[in-house]
Design goal:
Alpha-Beta Plaits; six-stranded mixed sheet; 33% helix; binds adenosine-5'-triphosphate; binds magnesium ion
């Protein structure tokens, strides 16, 4: 069963701006699914369409394998932008109002406040909360009614490093409880830390989708250097297990066949009379991979 499936979902603004173009996505139950893309790539527009807030130009989507309905919408909790809380009411009171609007039992509220780590500040008015606390309260609000699916649009925007860690850990915790999560983000590191699946958007186009390890993980890159760079380059180009070789200033960056180790490389070079001044194995930076894929 799919939780959300989009078929050729498209949004054109002002007749020419294709904000989302022919998007096909399938999100399975239990996925922590990241929609990753730079500013303006169509993340919010995509989420807005699937929540019935933005009218698609063409294409369609299903929730729980059925046409969208009010009943399906009840099974989804979402924060697209910071919700309007009452500034002079405390967390409990604010959530009670939300529960009332959602026709949900207010008994769950203390547990939600505990989950998002606001128990110690439950009596403070909303206006006295830090940005991170406000965001955690918003997440508690989305969890009212125990929805199966949670949708978050850039939930760590504007937070300080501590707030970012707290919100990410909260998302991981919610995912571990078996919820399906859809998270829009422009931060590759965030998607890598929180999600198990990812779709990468660029100018409204889907450029890659799959498991995080498949899409964002890369084969290691070995950096080497030696006093005589030309000699090193020439020897490396003759080694059968070197599959890719790039020059980066005084460093040569190479890829090798999977079964070969850095030790094998070092030994092979030493046997040819080359003593390395630099040897470093790095997993391809995700940022680099992302830019490579989005540029
Ligand atoms: N109401 C609108 N009218 C016209 N153009 C719009 C409207 N909303 C969004 N757009 C345009 O559609 C494109 C996609 O915007 P969207 O907000 O979906 O991107 P995003 O990936 O969420 O970006 P960000 O990371 O900045 O939140 C952008 O070029 C944006 O300017
Ligand atoms: Mg957005």
């Amino acid at each position: 069963m799919s939780v959300l499936q989009t078929t050729s979902l498209t949004k054109v603004y002002n007749k020419t701006l294709r904000a989302v173009d022919d998007l096909n996505l399938r999100i399975e139950k239990g996925n922590i699914y990241g929609i990753l893309g730079p500013n303006g790539s169509g993340k919010t527009t995509t989420l807005g369409m699937t929540l019935g807030i933005i009218h698609p130009t063409s294409g369609s989507y299903t929730w729980f394998d059925e046409a969208p309905s009010a009943a399906a919408r009840q099974r989804i909790g979402a924060i697209l932008e910071t919700p309007n809380f009452y500034p002079y009411m405390n967390a409990q009171k604010n959530l009670e109002i939300m529960a009332h609007i959602k026709r949900s039992d207010p008994k769950q509220i203390p547990e939600l406040i505990d989950l998002v780590g606001l128990t110690g500040r439950v009596d403070s008015p909303f206006t006295a909360y830090s940005l991170g606390m406000k965001q955690r309260l918003a997440i508690a609000g989305a969890l009212i009614g125990d929805p199966e699916v949670l949708i978050f649009d850039e939930p760590t925007n504007g937070l300080d490093p501590q707030g970012i860690v707290e919100v990410r850990n909260l998302l991981i915790e919610i995912g571990a409880r078996g919820k399906t999560i859809l998270l829009a983000s422009h931060i590759i590191d965030e998607v890598e830390k929180v999600c198990n699946h990812v779709a990468i958007l660029k100018y409204g186009d889907l450029i890659a989708a799959g498991s995080v390890s498949e899409i964002l993980g890369g084969e290691p890159i070995i950096e080497v250097s030696a006093p005589d760079l030309e000699q090193l380059k020439s020897v490396l180009s003759q080694l059968s297990f070197v599959t890719d070789l790039k020059e980066d200033g005084p460093i040569l960056a190479l890829k090798m066949k999977a079964e070969t180790t850095a030790t094998d490389l070092n030994k092979a070079l030493f046997d040819k009379g080359i003593v390395l001044s630099h040897l470093h194995v790095r997993k391809k930076s995700l940022e680099a991979e992302f830019l490579e894929r989005t540029s």
